[in-house]
Design brief:
single chain, mainly alpha, 68% helix, 0% strand
Length: 79
Amino acid sequence: MIRTQIYLTDAERAALSAISIQMGKKQSELIREAVDELIARYSETRRQKILNKAAGIWKNRDDLPDFGKLRKDWDRSLS
């Protein structure tokens, strides 16, 4: 683990301290959990944006083979 210093407002520090006592966890542990949650949320949002951007990229292309026909041919050859 790498030690990192952060600055909190008085209100953030007080709230974090209260949550720490209530949950029985160290403040550093709560901060790491919050950072992990932010990373997970960002990763999911980023992944969804990439998928949305990629959706339909093959649509209306006339330079590609007929994949439906190819699939039928493949299915027949497996029978």
